[in-house]
Amino acid sequence: MPRARTTGVASAARLARSILIGPGAGAGTSFRRGRATIHHAPAERLYDQWPEPVCIIADGPYGIGGFSGDPPTADRLAEWYRPHIEAWTRRATPQTTLWFWGTELGWATVHGEIVGQGWDYRNCHVWNKGLGHIAGNANSQTLRKFPVVTEICVQYVKAARFSVDGRQVSMQDWLRREWSRAGLPLCRANAACGVKNAATRKYLTACHLWYFPPVEAFERLAAYANRHGDRAGRPYFSLDGRTALAGTAWEKMRAKFHCEVGVTNIWSTPALRGPERLKRGAAALHTNQKPQDLYERIIRACTDAGDVVWEPFGGLCPGAVAAARLGRRYVGAEIQPDFYRAATERLAGATRYG
Ligand SMILES: C[S@@+](CC[C@H](N)C(=O)[O-])C[C@H]1O[C@@H](n2cnc3c(N)ncnc32)[C@H](O)[C@@H]1O
């Protein structure tokens, strides 16, 4: 039976509770601890076996030749990511949030592919590593630009789509269509929701000021349309043609978001130094190791306990550690043996909060 190498953080007792699955060291092996599994295999071979994700953290190639397998330029990055995005789109639900890490140019190159496959852009977060990141190494006169001290992490959500007469329409269009199908004037939505004009203006508008109706508002709109709307077209606001969608099902039609007070889209955290930075001799083990606290932030923001987190390009798998600490389920993948091994050791040593 192959065994994971232990480190200072991974006690023998914790490793004993962890399981190595598979034929042994090398591609195809998996390491499981509790509800988190890291696979030593290309992610694209695994997506269809993984449970549905509520959160996908994609920190893959940047197009800067930063690690083995990272293309030297961003030119063909969209092509590289296409099969991955196809799988994320296939397996995601309207509750899923995608966090796409990269350089600004890498992201600009891939953005069209992500949106083109049905994801809605939500926000761009800038990881500002601060002046300390320059460390006297940037020769701006040679490079002819200001030193770069940032990476970005872009948030997308998988938009719900509704099938109408064989066409896929947006939630906004579907809500308006159901209301007008009921034969009710738009202004009656206000009476339905017990408000002056907010329901028409927010939930049934055709413009960019549209809002997702909260559960209570959706239930009121659906109940009103089914009580007062044209009998011939009932039920309204239904997906199965038999009953209106329940509030609990409606709540699952959009990604979760828990807003942490004081957090903005600028994340000022120095690049990793000190004990969190994993080393091989004097050098960093992985050039792209991300701060643990940023991963915990994004997982907390878009999941609840027990939800599934995917980390397809694991590296040292900060997502696995974050998920274990926060009580989320987790699946991740890493193809480089050294990174995979180090990630399993970190996961073995992770302690749950609370
Ligand atoms: C940018 S690094 C991730 C760093 C990670 N976020 C961390 O903090 O350690 C991308 C990683 O993806 C891995 N990788 C590249 N292609 C992959 C694939 N198809 N499946 C799984 N891992 C892959 C690389 O070996 C590399 O370690």
Question: Could you describe the 3D structure shown?
Answer:
- The chain has two domains: 9-160 and 260-348, Rossmann fold; 162-251.
- It is of the alpha/beta class.
- It has helices at 12-16, 77-91, 104-116, 140-143, 171-181, 188-193, 198-203, 215-228, 247-251, 292-302, 318-326, 337-349; strands at 18-21, 30-33, 36-39, 55-58, 97-102, 119-128, 150-158, 161-164, 167-170, 266-268, 279-280, 283-284, 308-311, 329-333.
- The protein has twelve helices and 14 strands.
- The strands form three sheets. It has a ten-stranded mixed beta sheet with strand order 1-2-3-14-13-4-5-7-6-10, with helices on both faces. It has a two-stranded antiparallel ribbon with strand order 8-9. A two-stranded antiparallel sheet has the order 11-12.
- S-adenosylmethionine is lined by residues 42-44, 59-60, 67, 69, 286, 288-290, 312-313, 315-316, 318, 333-336, 339.
